Amino acid sequence: MARFPIDEFKELATPFYFYDLTLLDRTLAEIKRTSRDERFRVHYAIKANANPGILRRIQASGLGVDAVSGGEILAAIDAGFHGEQIVYAGVGKTDAEIRLALNNGVGCFNVESEPELDIIDEIASSLGLKANIALRINPNIDAHTHEYITTGLAENKFGINLDQLPDIIEKVLRLDHINLSGLHFHIGSQITEIEPFLMLCETINRIQDEWTERGVEFKTINVGGGLGIDYADPDRHPIPDFEGYFKAFRNHLRLRPEQELHFELGRSVVAQCGSLITRVLYVKEGTTKRFAIVDAGMTDLIRPALYNAHHRIENISSPNDVKHHYDVVGPICESSDCFGKDEMLPAIRRGDFLALRSAGAYGEIMASQYNCRTLPSSYFYEK
What are the positions of the active site (predicted)? Predict the structure, then answer.
């Protein structure tokens, strides 16, 4: 079990997000070590967590940013990132967001459809600018992950199908205000096996060979992110297998001379450094169940309700007590407001602190004010 400064928690209003900055720094150092290659460029997917304190730490480490909205572009710039360090993705970029990105000199647009390409060209022309773009391709690879976070299949709202690529590339090469920088791929999220990434390498190699024969070369290949984490045992695997991840691309992707390889990692960067800390309000004895009712709810961490995801739950007030079964539930007026059923936990009492682990990604950033609740605060800790 991770060590938490319980005595300091007693003075804080719950629920709140606890961030272990020492672990974040170790994770960033491991990314830097294992991605050490003059061709590699690692971008942090800001959608995972846009807490300013987290962003500033990541910016200081030298990573770039993957943004999917104008708001994320502004958050990145506020944290010290420069425009050229930002790649901008998303299927529904508004005209205002495209102007914002162009005026801030974003390094590349990841273009997801032909209509979007037309609008970027039109707006860039009106501003007297030229936009660098990468075409997001659906490689039709099943990443064997949750249907809500699978993004690389053929019929998906994201990206361009392979059979549409020739016509779109031909069009791109005719546009005066568009520079075709490269190709972009993203096959899904929370991928815990290397095989889907190897399949992606094979697909990219084939696509590149085809276009080399046609006389078209790409400066950049962007393979997205998707590397998963260990939600079940975060203490055993606090840092994901970046070594194996980067090695898969280093050994299996045939890059051209001078070609850059871009990555967009989010969950694997920040998930394990964050926990949602909540206080027990009541222990309710039912006929066949025992409920631990806590002050955090699906408004603070929606993943269990949205994806049926499970975060490891720990009683950090009484970690060594006799264990009992509990349904750990929140106060929201929805039956889906449940963090875990039949959890085997040390005896829980009113006032105990529970930690929902591995919540640094898609936790605080997805919080809402449903039921007119206050957004959770954040607490940073450094050993």
Answer: 333
| Residue ranges at the known binding site | 226, 264-267, 303, 307, 334, 362
CATH number at residue 245: 3.20.20.10
* Cβ(264)–Cβ(186) below 8 Å: yes
Q: What residues contact 122, with CB distance under 8 A and at least 6 apart?
A: none
- In this structure, the answer to whether residues 116 and 218 fall within a common structural domain is yes
CB burial of residue 167 (10 Å; 0-12, 13-18, 19+): exposed
Q: For residues 355 and 20, what is the distance between their CA atoms, to the nearest angstrom? A: 13
The reply to whether 273 belongs to the active site is no
**Of 201, 333, 338, 372, which one is the catalytic site residue?**
333
Residues belonging to the binding site for substrate are: 267, 303, 307, 334, 362
User: Residues forming the annotated binding site for pyridoxal 5'-phosphate?
Assistant: 226, 264-267, 362
pLDDT digits (tens, 9 = 90+) for 270-288: 999 999 999 999 999 989 9
Q: What pLDDT score does 149 carry?
A: 41
Q: How far apart are CA 273 and CA 278, in angstroms?
A: 16
171 vs 166: CA distance, rounded Å: 9
- Which residues of the chain are modeled with pLDDT < 70? 1, 142-155
Ramachandran region of residue 160, left (φ > 0), alpha (ψ -120 to 50) or beta?
Answer: beta
